Every structure is written in structure tokens, then in C-alpha cells.
Amino acid sequence: MPKKAVLIELGGSHAECLFSQIYFLRERGYEIHVICNRHLWPFLSDVHEYITGHLLVDTNVKRWKRFKMLQEVWRYIRYGGISHAIFNTTELKIVRDLLIFPFPGVEFAGLLHNGLKLSSGFTVRHFITQKVKKLFVLNDGMLPHLQASDLLQIQSLYAVFFPEMGGSTTLPKGKQEFWVCIPGEIDPRRRDIPGLIQQIQEHGLASNIRVILLGSMNADPALVEAINALPQRSQVITFGEEKISNEIFHAYIRQSDIILPLLHPPIPRFQEFFKTRISGAYNLAFAYKKPLMMEQHFEAWTDFKEHAILYPENDLVKTLHDLAGQPAVMEKKVEGLHNWPKLKFEVQCNKYIGLLEAAGR
Question: 3-state class of 47 per DSSP?
């Protein structure tokens, strides 16, 4: 009789991290269940066939309705013969509230998206980790910066396996064009968009470079105005405030030449990104075997020292110009990503299942 595992996402996001886990559990013969926010279920349509059962919930409810929703989740796990429950986003108060219920015989694990919560997050330290003793973080570079109890088992997980999205969509691209993709919402608090704009204003862009801001433009009017005023505005591709479809999003990533997270020291959360959290751009780049461009501080992360292209913050556009004219450098980086053992399915699957099934401390 197969072991039963349930993947739980109650935070309304990070659904892209579910795909790898579903593939790993399926590879090892688990019966897979999913409990998630209702709006996330269609996003998982490519793997519905691998999911035996699911429960869709609305978490934006309060008081009695919230209790009834949590009780429904508890019953699904408690009386469904589940042996392993994995939180896709662990550091949530709603996870704390769920764990108040008794779960005899259930082993818990979870993905921790911000490792800082282990040292400064009261909810995680004092409540959640009393029951969730096995944790995954999303890059090896986070591990040296975690301050955690010795009773916890923590290792990395590279969630870089997902269905081919946008595979039938081919975007028009000139033969000599060099596409620089910046995925995610255009938010200057998370990406140094102002710094990029300033450098383009000062240095221009080589005629074959296209900078693709691959996210909705929910930015302040001054930033939008600055982008629209660029002399090379036609070389900076934006999408307004509309949400980009998964098909178009992944088509741009697949056809891009390089991925640029734009994490620079001036952004408010730079120290978190430098130590205890990742950008979703990393896993996209690793999944599609696209080189990352990282600001030179990130040389401290082994992944980036070996496989990314590092640059000084003030030389971002200059570095782009150099790379656009050096195809051999790009080809070598791409080859390195394809040959990188860490990104092999069996390596990540073994690590994931190994921690799930490991004896507790």
C-alpha cells in the first residue's frame, strides 16, 4: 500500500514550488494529495493527473469561518491516512493555527522561504518548529546564515522542475538580438529598477539588446515616466499593469539569453536576499539553463561564483554590452548549467525524499 503525502499551500503563492515536489513524490511511489488556496488549483492543471485527492480552501475568512476551514483541513489529513504533510510555505500564522490540532502519526516537513524567520520570527521559532522539525530552504547559499535549533533537520531543495509552459509559443526575435529578462513584478523595493534606468540613460543600450521587464508595472508614476522617457524606449519591453499569462511569461524566459534579478545593495531587503532568501529568478534560470547575472556581492554564494556572471553594480550596462558581443562566454556558461550535477532530477529527488523519510532527532 503506497504511503500518502499531502502538499499544503495556504499562503496563496509559491505554487511553482509544488511541481518539483509532486514529481519527486510520484517518482518514489507516494499517493499524492494537495490542499491549497482555491485560485491556485488551475495553475497545477498539468499535474492534476498525478494527484489522487485535493481540498481547495478560501483562507481570507475570519473567526468562526476560519476555524471551520482549518477543521476541514485537519479532518482531511487526520482521517485520510496521510503519513507525510509538507507545507509549501511554512512561515505563516495560518500554519501555526492549523498545528494546534492534534495530528497523531503524521510526519511534518516544510519549505522555508525566508530563513530569517528561524532567528527573528516568533511564530516560526516558538510554535511552528515545535511540530515541523524538517525544513527545506531554496538554495545552498542560505544554509550558512541560518540560526536554528540543533533539533531541526535543514537542507536545501532546488525546485527547478515543472511542466513545459509556453512550449508552443515562439516570440519574434531577431537573429542577433540579445534578450535580458528581469522576471517578476516591477517593484523598486525588490529590484533596482531606478539604478538600471539611470545607467541606460547615461550609457545607452547597444542596438541588439532588449531589456524585458517581465512583470506588471505596478510602479509609482515617476518610475513609469522615467522608463517611458528613455531614449532607447523601444528596446525596453514592458507590459503595463496587466498580468502576463504563464504561456507568454515562460516563452520569454525560454527565449532569453540571460536572467537578471537586479538585486543591488540600495534595495531595502538586499541583506535578506544576500543571506536568507532567494529571488524566484534563480529557479527559473536554473530550470531553463539560462545564465544569471548577479551583482558581485553574490560571489559569496558558490552557485553564483561558479555559474553566474558577476558584475559591479555601477557596471551593469557595460557588462551587458560586453556579453552581447561575446557569444562564446555565454555558450560556456550554458554548457556549465547543463552539466551541473546539482540540477539533475535524481540528485534533488534523493535529497528531498531522504529528508522526508529520515528519522527524527
Answer: helix
